[in-house]
Amino acid sequence: MTSLDQVPSLRAPGPGRGAAPAARTGRARRRGRGGSGRLGGFGGFAPSRRRVLQAATAAGFAALGVFPAAREAYADGYDIWTGSCPSYAAGHNCSPGCGPSTVYADACATTGTYAGFHRNDGVTWTLRPNQCYSGSYDGWLWRYDDDCGTCGCGIERRCHDGYRNTGSGWVRSICRHTTECGCPGSVTWPTTGQGTTGPDAYTVQHLVTFHGFATEPDGVYGPRTAEQVTLFQQSEGLEPTGTAGPATWPVLVHTVRRGDGRGGGPLADAVRGAQRQLGKHGHPLTVDGIFGPLTEEAVRAFQTRHEIGVDGVVGPVTWRTLTGTV
């Protein structure tokens, strides 16, 4: 995990000027001009925008339709926004991303000079100059000062944007990386109840269906879902609260592995729950209820990232880490 003091300064020295402060709020520009196009004072951290252009084909950029010809804004350096969250992300706490783009778990470089920033090989991945916040920035650094995922006392994150070649075209992608984590602690089961929407609600719905309490998987934890969770809790001798909390989740989840769900039936619902959680963590899978090679690959990648034992099986520890982290 990158520590805060390893995050490069948001402004680089150029010819005839000294180094700027390491971070500042508001618009923080990274402009290294002249020479090799690399940033002085930080070991060549940021690739020149000219090199970015060289790395991807002209036809590919033209197809994206977002790159004006020879714009100085993407000729050199990065622009990183370090101000407050925009209004559309105000309620997202620690994971607003950089807009309505997909967060891919494998979008971030994990080693080397550019660790924690969007990959840029010109084949599968390329950077997205000045297309992030307000159409002017390449990335966003922000801090959330409450509990967040495995961090108990706050977290600082950076998102950096680009494109992913899916094989049928380029799509917008996001690398989201933790740069600082305060008070790291053990991952705990979440509390999921009425009003919850999205992957966690879907997962509860799939899992109670697996246990025989059929619930329409619509991603909204409403009265019907609460009713079925209450029935499940009563059947297991749990307090019938209608909310999936730390006492209910360990009983609700079911271990799934390669080959499960191929014949359909209840086991497919448990697999769907796991696939929903993997999707939440940046592994875009088809939620088909079949634990095939792509699902196993995603599980292994998730386990590797969280250092919880890599076996490709979604057991209790992996379930807790999937549901208890963002």
**Multimerization status:** single chain
Mean pLDDT: 73
Instruction: Name the shape in a single word.
Output: globular
In total, the number of strands is 7
How is this structure best described in words?
25% of the residues lie in helices and 12% in strands. The protein has eight helices and seven strands; from the N terminus they run βααββββββαααααα.
Give me some keywords for this one.
7-stranded mixed beta sheet; disordered N terminus; 326 residues; 8 helices; alpha/beta
Task: Summarize the entry for a quick read.
By secondary structure, the protein is an alpha/beta fold. Helix content is 25%, strand content 12%.
Write the layout of secondary structure elements.
Blueprint: E1 27-29, H1 49-55, H2 58-64, E2 79-81, E3 102-103, E4 125-127, E5 139-144, E6 155-165, E7 170-181, H3 199-210, H4 223-235, H5 249-252, H6 266-280, H7 293-306, H8 316-324
Parallel strand pairs: 2-5, 3-7
Antiparallel strand pairs: 1-2, 4-6, 5-6, 6-7
